[in-house]
Every structure is written in C-alpha cells, then in structure tokens.
C-alpha cells in the first residue's frame, strides 16, 4: 500500500544528510501523534552514521525551531552543522519537545546550519560561532505538505470500522449516499433500522438518542424523522453507534446513542466544495467553505433541499361485541401529496491561543417547511347510526426553525491525556403545526356537494434548552484514568394550541374553548459523574462509574380543570465494563467486552404535548403530560476478532425497562350535537409496564478481492411487552439484515450496493409489517479526482412500499395499509477546490445531552 508521506520521506533522505549525535541526548523512536510537526505513523529516527570529526573548542550554538504557520515547536527536527563551504556535516543533533537544540564543544569560526524535518522545507542559516555561547535565535520552518496534492493516496478507511465501545460507519466512503439525506445514510448503519416513514430503531429499540457532532441539537427536538430529512448526506463524515454508553454520557435509556459526525476542515489554507443533486423524489444543493491558518480555523457550510412524496392509505376497524363477534364500524380510503423543503447551515470557529489552550465557538441552524393535502373518505357501514358517511378535504402545514449556539474552552497539559474543559450551549426550536379541513357529506367535494363542517387548528410549540458542563480527565498512569464532571440542563418547553370550528360548515369559525389551551413544561436536570478505568492485568482492564442526576419538573395549563404535573427525584445510575484481549494488546487481534449500565430516560415534548391532532376526527392523537421517566437495565457481551483484514463482531444483549413508555390506543364514544354518536380511536402514550428485549447481533466485514469489500449485520432478538394494569401482553421474535458491498474499477470508476430486510415489528397492541430497502450507485471521478458524478437508484423494482400495521385490543381490531412512494433515481455532482495540505488537529470537546426520550415521526405530534 502506498503512503501519502512516502515521496516526502524519500525527498528528505536525498536532500538532508543523516546525522550522528555527538551529544548524550538520543532522538525518540517516533514523534508523538497529534504534536506539531509530527503525524501518526511518522517513521522512527534513522540510525546514526559516523561523521567527520569537527574542530573541537569551547563554543556553543543554541536555537529554537518553530512552525512558520502555527508558531509551535517542531519537535525532534534534525540540526546539521556544515562547514562554510561544502556539504559534509561536521556535527549534528535533534531538537527536544520544545523545539530547542544545542551543539557543544565547537571551535570558533564560520559555519552553516541546516535544519530539516519530515513535511517541512529544509532551511540553511549562516552563523559565526564565538568562544562562548552563540544563539541562532528562532528559526521558522515552512510546511511542504502542499506536495501531497501530487501524491496518489491508495490507503483509506473501510466503510465500516469496529472500535472497543462503538461501531463506526464512514458515510463519506459510501457512494450511494451522494445526493441523499441523513435518513438514507442511517439505513446503511450497522444495528440501525429506519422504516419508510423515517422512524429510527437501534437493535429493536425506538428509544434512541441522536446527536450531531456529539451534541444535542434543536433540529431533532421535535421529530427525529423530520430532522433526518434536513441534513444532506454529502455533509456527513461518519456515524457512530454506541450501545453501552459510560457514565460520562447522560443517562441514555434503552437502545443507545447514534452520533452523526459532520465533515470538518482540517486543511491549511482555503478550501471547500459544492454539490448539486437532482432526483425523482428529492433534490438538494450544498456548499462548504473553510479556512485555516496557523492558530485559527473556520468551518462553514450551507444546504437546501426539496422533496415530493405522494401516498395513499386505507383503514378498516372492527368493533368487538360481547358475544365474541365483530362488526365493521369504519372503512376509510385516503390519498394525498406531501411537499417539503428547507435548509441547514453551520459556522464554526476554533482558536488555539497557546500550546495547551483551545477555544471553539459554533452555531448551526435549520429551517424546514412541509405541506400536504389529503382527501379522506369514510364509507357507509353495516351500522350507519354510529356515524355519518362523509369526505374530508384537508390541508396541513408544518414549519420549524431551530438554532444551536455552543462554545468550549479546553485546557490540556504536558501529561498525556490529562484534560479539563468547560462547555456551554443554548438550543432553540420553534415550530408551527397548522391544519384546515372542510367536510362534505357523501363522496363528493366542492361547492356543489355542500360543506357541512369546518375546522382550523393552530399549534405553536417551543423548546428552549441551556446547558453548562465541565469535565476533567486525569491519567494516573498509562492504564489508570479518572474521569469526572458536572452538568446542568435547563429546559423550557411550551405548546400553545387553538382550535376553531364551524359546526354547520356555512358560518364563521369560532374558538373551541375545551380544545384550546396553553401548556408549559419546565425541566431542570443537575448531574455529577465519576468514572475510573484501570488494568487488572496486561490483558484485562475494567471501567467502573456512576452518575447521579437530580430532576425537577413543573408543568401547568393556562386554563381549564386539567391538572398540572410536578415531579422531583434523584437517581443513582451505575455502570461497569470489563475488557479482555487474549493476544497482544498493542496489535489488532481478539477482544472480549462485558458491560452493564442503568439508564433513565425522560419523555420529551413529543410525548408530553396535550395538543389533539384531529385532522381525522375518527382517529385522533395527543401526548400525555403525566408521563414519568423510564428506567432501564442494560447488559451486553461483545466479541471482536480481526483476521487478515476481515472483522467479525458478535454481541449478545438484554434490556429490561420498567415504567416503559408505549403507544396506547382505545376507542370511546363521542356525542355530537344534532348528529349520531361517533366512535373515535384515541392514540396517546402511557407508562404501562415492562419492555424486555433479548437478542444477538453479528457484524462482519471482508475483502474477497483487493478492490471488493463486503460487510453486513444480522440482528435477531425477542421482545416481551407486558402491562399487568391493563391486562395487555404481546411478544415475538424479530430480526433485521443489512448488507453493504462496493467494488472499485480502474480509471476512477466505482460501484456500491446496499440493502436491508426488517421483519414484522411487535407492538403492545398489534404489529407492523416487514419492509425492505435497497440502493445501487455508480460513481466516476473527474477533473483529476477533484470532482465526481454519481448515479443512484433506490428501490427501483417497485414504486411503493406498504407500511402495513394491525391493532388488536379488547375493544376493537384495526387493519391499515399505508402505501409510501419510495422508488427514486438521482444524479449528483460534487466538486472540491482549494489546498489539500493537512496538519494535526486538537481533539475538541462537545456537549452531549442524551437523557430524554425523543419523538418519532408519523403521527403529527410535536
């Protein structure tokens, strides 16, 4: 495999003499990763060669070597003492970790000093050495890394990587992502499932926390499914899946954490990219512009997108009689279109004022608009007295804006891995969900049909979140580390909803007081944590930790007799992990890891919002302000082995959640003035029992040929759902399969394929049918690899997918079919410009608020 630094190394060996050390100080075997002037994998210092004897005397020559751009020391740079004429070195040494050097015992006279280091242009200075000490001063070396633009780099990361505590999907290496969204990316991530509506599951749990660059974001505050449509795939670098978070993370409850890492500039100078994609279902454009010079780096990007999605659905509901028979009470057919779009942008600044100090400031924001029209027809039933036959013509609009502002200060130390950081973040999300409907008798619509009912609803919800956090890492030795920190999260949530109705359809819309209100919800979480990692032997290590969180909740309504909510509780959340490496710990081989953690998950506004979505008056949905948090015990046993470039990862896991928040459906009778009674299905949420999951996942990655890679994940698990208080129970075996494969041809042409299969999903009161997905992409590199053109096709064998579901309760049985259009073809073009020289970057700290149960898409809750 060729290495990017090989031509530079050869050039340096040919132009810079190899020097022997005459001083007692020896050069280190290699520079340290992440230090200025060095890079991971820097070759060991060459062995000393014999040099001609230099004239001896009492003279001394000193100096300091710095990077011309960063003004930081160039550690272990080579210093050669040359005669005034000629090229044969007389003496030499290397700089220390401060960039300082000293040559002793020199005879007075005129000399030349040649200073060189890998990745820098060599520099020669004339100097006259006296009888005492002579200071050459500061010598600046200029980086020659721009030569990398002329080098062919053949080594690159695999699409899937396994690490001790997470699995990483390198999205930028998968060409089928070009022109897509974050939802398209997540469908290919190991252990993750995304249904056709965009709802996310991790190893069978929809209780998943999605972070962006390791931090919470207002973008996902209302709906994860909608948020994933806003982030273009071309801006995603990788996705991390963490199934057993340690104590330093907030109390994630069941599934784990999905961390979406956006691309960041690590290049000197100015560079960027532009991209444009057009398709049958969605189109987008994105651009990035970055600048980095010395101590300052700027990262910026912006994107816009639009999508179009037609669909149709049907529903049948059967009411159960006391004698065990059933009768059809509702038969619906609907069809409509959805049109949406918006933008996403971010700007980041990082500044390193001194060697051990780092500052960052970032802001990102998004805007999303969605509108749709739908016609819903309720046909006659064998019991026409239950409700009237009618058609509803509805229009809905959803608008959301959000932004995040964050900053951090990080203090590192001379001691490796020791670090202290202070972070702050403010997040704001504001969204409006409005709908308007006109109802007509029978199957006709329009003026001739005679409208007999009108309704309009406005719902404004806000989510404000302020976070302060401090963390400290102290290594006592190479194998013993203490992590500790504290955090405060202050949330201010509100939902102001108004419903106006016209019961005749021919009069004026008037506010419906019983259905209008304002809900306010304040939540403060204070937490401290400690985590201690240590080695029990050379091959066995452990980490133990605990997190203590105190929660205060205050919720209230503006009017009416609805009771508010007030809660205060303190939770102790322990975790422990044990890792064993039977082979050499410094080389990839085999590893075995066992982990236990207890987590708490608080419901977010999606689950709490009491706003009633009555677009379909016979099927309504709303949140529950009285929900309490979930507590989960999670167990995992993980085995990983590396065999000749192939990876195999096997995990067995169990999760047991008490007071589980589950969707609950029931039917009640609604009396309508001057009209027949109607049976209305209510969909809401309750803490209704226990959710237990037991499963096993297998991930493998292999290269059958040097240019062909194949990876895949199989997840099989058993779910048991029980609610003793309601007398409900359901269970079943489920599975998911994900396959990814790519082949690289000659002349910059590559092919990628991925596909997946998800089995039927078991729910407390029913099930959801299985679904499949697949995509293929063909990419051609252009303009000396500065640009690429990619053609992608998604689910091209059939136009729609049926997201079929069934609900079975002691009151009724319901069957529904939701046909979603998923066939798509898109063509994407990307162009990259600017310099390609790199320099090591400091690891930046970020806030991770992952303690709340977030919303799913699909039912209109905010």
From TrEMBL:
UniProt entry tagged with the keyword Transferase: no
Domain TonB-dependent receptor plug: start-end pairs: 171-257
Alphabetized InterPro entries for the sequence: Beta-barrel_TonB_sf, CarboxyPept-like_regulatory, OMP_b-brl_3, Plug_dom, Plug_dom_sf
Annotated compartments: Cell outer membrane
Gene3D superfamilies to which the protein is assigned, alphabetical: Carboxypeptidase-like, regulatory domain, TonB-dependent receptor, beta-barrel domain, TonB-dependent receptor, plug domain
Annotated segments matching region Disordered: 25-48, 839-862
Signal peptide (UniProt feature, chain positions): 1-20
All residue ranges annotated as the Outer membrane protein beta-barrel domain in the record: 412-831
Keywords for this protein: Cell outer membrane, Membrane, Signal
PANTHER family xref list: PLUG DOMAIN-CONTAINING PROTEIN, TONB-DEPENDENT RECEPTOR-LIKE BETA-BARREL DOMAIN-CONTAINING PROTEIN
Protein name (record): Outer membrane beta-barrel family protein
Organism: Hymenobacter fastidiosus
């Amino acid at each position: 495999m060729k290495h990017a630094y090989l031509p530079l190394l050869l050039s340096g060996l040919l132009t810079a003499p190899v020097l022997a050390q005459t001083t007692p100080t020896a050069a280190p075997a290699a520079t340290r990763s992440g230090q200025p002037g060095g890079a991971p994998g820097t070759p060991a210092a060459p062995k000393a060669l014999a040099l001609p004897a230099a004239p001896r005397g009492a003279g001394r020559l000193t100096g300091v070597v710095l990077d011309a751009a960063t003004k930081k020391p160039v550690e272990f740079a080579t210093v050669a003492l040359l005669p005034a004429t000629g090229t044969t070195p007389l003496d030499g040494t290397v700089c220390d970790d401060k960039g300082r050097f000293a040559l002793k015992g020199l005879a007075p006279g005129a000399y030349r000093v040649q200073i060189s280091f890998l990745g820098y242009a060599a520099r020669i200075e004339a100097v006259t050495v006296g009888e005492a000490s002579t200071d050459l001063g500061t010598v600046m070396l200029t980086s020659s890394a721009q030569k990398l633009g002329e080098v062919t780099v053949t080594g690159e990361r695999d699409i899937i990587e396994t690490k001790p505590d997470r699995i990483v999907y390198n999205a930028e290496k998968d060409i089928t992502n070009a022109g897509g969204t974050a939802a398209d990316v997540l469908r290919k991530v190991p252990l993750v499932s995304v249904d056709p509506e965009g709802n996310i599951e991790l190893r069978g749990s929809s209780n998943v926390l999605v972070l962006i660059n390791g931090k919470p974001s207002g973008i996902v505050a209302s709906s994860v499914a909608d948020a994933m449509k806003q982030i273009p795939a071309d801006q995603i670098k990788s996705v991390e899946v963490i199934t057993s978070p340690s104590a330093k993370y907030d109390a994630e409850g069941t599934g784990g954490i999905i961390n979406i890492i956006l691309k960041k500039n690590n290049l000197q100078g100015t560079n960027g990219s532009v991209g444009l994609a057009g398709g049958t279902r969605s189109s987008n454009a994105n651009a990035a512009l970055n600048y980095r010079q010395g101590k300052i780096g700027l990262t910026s990007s912006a994107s816009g997108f639009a999508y179009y999605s037609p669909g149709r659905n049907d529903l049948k509901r059967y009411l159960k009689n006391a004698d065990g028979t059933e009768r059809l009470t509702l038969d619906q057919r609907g069809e409509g279109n959805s049109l949406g779009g918006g933008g996403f942008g971010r700007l980041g600044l990082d500044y390193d004022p001194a060697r051990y100090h780092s500052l960052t400031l970032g802001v990102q924001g998004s805007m999303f608009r969605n509108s749709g029209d739908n016609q819903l027809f309720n046909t006659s039933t064998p019991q026409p007295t239950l409700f009237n036959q009618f058609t509803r013509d509805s229009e809905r609009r959803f608008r959301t804006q959000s932004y995040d502002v964050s900053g951090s200060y990080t203090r590192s130390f001379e001691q490796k891995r020791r670090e202290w950081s202070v972070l702050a973040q403010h997040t704001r999300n504001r969204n409006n969900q409005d709908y308007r409907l006109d109802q007509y008798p029978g199957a006709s619509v329009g003026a001739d049909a005679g409208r007999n009912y009108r309704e309009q609803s406005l719902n404004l919800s806000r989510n404000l979140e302020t976070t302060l956090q401090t963390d400290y890492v102290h290594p006592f030795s190479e194998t013993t580390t203490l992590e500790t920190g504290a955090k405060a999260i202050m949330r201010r949530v509100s939902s102001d909803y108004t419903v106006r109705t016209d019961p005749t359809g021919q009069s004026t819309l008037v506010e419906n007081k019983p259905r209008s209100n304002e809900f306010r919800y304040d939540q403060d979480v204070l937490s401290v944590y400690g985590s201690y990692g240590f080695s029990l032997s050379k091959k066995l290590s452990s980490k133990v930790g605990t997190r203590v969180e105190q929660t205060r909740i205050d919720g209230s309504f503006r009017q009416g007799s609805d009771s508010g909510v007030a809660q205060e509780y303190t939770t102790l959340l322990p975790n422990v992990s044990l890792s064993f490496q039977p082979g050499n710990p410094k080389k990839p081989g085999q590893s075995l890891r066992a982990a236990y953690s207890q987590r708490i998950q608080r419901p977010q506004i999606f689950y709490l919002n009491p706003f009633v979505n009555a677009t379909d008056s016979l099927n309504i949905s709303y949140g529950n302000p009285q929900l309490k948090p979930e507590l989960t015990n999670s167990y995992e046993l993980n085995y990983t082995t590396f065999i000749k470039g192939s990876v195999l990862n096997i995990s067995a896991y169990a999760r047991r959640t008490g007071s589980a928040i589950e969707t609950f459906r029931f039917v009640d009778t609604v009396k309508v003035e001057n009209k027949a009674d109607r049976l209305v299905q209510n969909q809401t949420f309750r803490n209704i029992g226990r959710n237990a999951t037991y499963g096993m996942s297998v991930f493998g990655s292999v290269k059958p040929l040097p240019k062909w890679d194949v990876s895949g994940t199989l997840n099989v698990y058993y779910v048991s759902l029980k609610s003793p208080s309601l007398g409900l129970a359901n269970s079943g075996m489920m599975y998911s399969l994900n396959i990814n494969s790519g082949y690289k041809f000659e002349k910059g042409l590559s092919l990628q394929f991925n596909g997946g299969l998800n089995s039927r999903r078991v729910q407390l009161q029913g099930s959801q049918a299985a679904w499949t997905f697949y995509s293929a992409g063909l990419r051609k590199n252009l303009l000396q690899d500065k640009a690429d053109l990619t053609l992608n096709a998604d689910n091209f064998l059939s136009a729609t997918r049926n997201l079929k579901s069934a609900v079975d309760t002691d009151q009724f049985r319901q069957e529904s079919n939701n046909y979603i259009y998923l066939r798509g073809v898109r063509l994407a073009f990307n162009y990259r410009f600017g310099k390609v020289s790199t320099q090591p970057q400091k690891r930046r700290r970020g806030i991770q608020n992952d303690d709340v149960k977030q919303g799913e898409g699909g039912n209109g809750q905010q």
